[in-house]
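Sequence, structure tokens passed on for absentees:
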Amino acid sequence: MSKVLGLGNALVDIMTKLNNDSTLDALGLPKGSMQLVDEHFIQKATDFTKHLPHTLAAGGSAANTIHGLANMGIDTAFIGKIGDDSFGKVFQADMSKHGINPMVLKGQADSGRALALVSPDTERTFATYLGAAIELTADDLSPEMFDGYSYFHIEGYLVQNHDLIRRAMEIAHSKGLLISIDMASYNVVRDNQAFLQEIIQKYVSIVFANEDEAKAFTGKSPEESLDVFAQMVSIAVVKLGAEGSIIKRGNERINVGIIGVDCIDTTGAGDLYAAGFIYGLIKNLSLYKCGQIGSVLSGHVIEVLGPKMDGMRWQNVKNLVAKIENE
């Protein structure tokens, strides 16, 4: 069966459930924002919220997708950089626990971490310290890392490091891997639009983008953006949140709905959609079924705090996916 290699920011997610939004005001964090912060701030914010319910898990967009694929029984690996500290140990142990081959290198800074503050209305506010994660460079990559894999999944949050992304895609492309990219955040897309145009046209086979990211890239509506992407890659996916997703391959155009769930926290929804979709491709399923499986995974992860689901929930997901596969 095909194996999937991921590349992304190696972060430890500190998922924290707020009783109210006064904590955001006290920390000076605009609700719903993602703020890059320094080591001093992340320590202060972590100390300030440590009395609240929270969980620790290996995170970052690509890592979440790789986790989802691993839980679906796909052989996976992840390339990233961590610090030589307790958070780095948490990240590496969490990867190994789920059967992921952790190609994690050691950096000079402390391990990156994302403090995710989840308001009672489920909106998320992030304070992200990238730390050692952004010390990953093009020189850290070797062709041997890519041997034996069929898919290469990369998160858009890395595209600010042009040399790293170009080198990674050059290697993956030369080895014949199918390359997928999740666009990440609309501001990252906006600030790196020309570079994204270059690498997508040259190397990428599958693009995942939400409405905001698609608009930042094309300046168009989701439907029009889908057409733009589909002219550049083999498979284009635009995620529409509560409206589901739209998919295009050549002249084939698919609309996929969502499943009925009780939303607690949308962290990881897009990442798990990508995991389900890639799983469907590996299983040679139709685009519609790929989208359905993406919806099942993303729908279930938003019912829990953070981007990780427990064993019982994963078993339920697998049962639903098996029904889709066998329909």
Observations:
- The mean pLDDT is 92.
